[in-house]
Amino acid sequence: QLQLVESGGGLVQPGGSLRLSCAASGFTLDYYAIGWFRQAPGKEREGVSCINSSGRSTNYADSVEGRFTISRDNAKNTVYLQMNSLKPEDTAIYYCAKVRYYCSGHPTAYDIWGQGTQVTVSS
Asked: pLDDT digits over 61-80, tens only?
């Protein structure tokens, strides 16, 4: 069974940091770009970041540029999202997903999704 499992979410104060992990099972991440999305209550799912298969190319939403860093360790079959300088507006469920072909900000470009991990930024 092909699965992605996110972990690392939690409650953090504004200005704090979290590192999310996305582990794959049932397939090897090496050949695929992986994206991170988030969805806040009452809002549409939005693309946060994406990394290509080699890790040499990354992109970010304007809202997280300079604060979030995506990376991957293919030996561990895992992709990470380091989130620094967190703001209350970063509060959402964060999902990782496997790209069908190329990185995109559209959810329809992804075919395997994790179950999500909750990130809450609050004092």
From this structure: 999 999 999 999 999 999 99
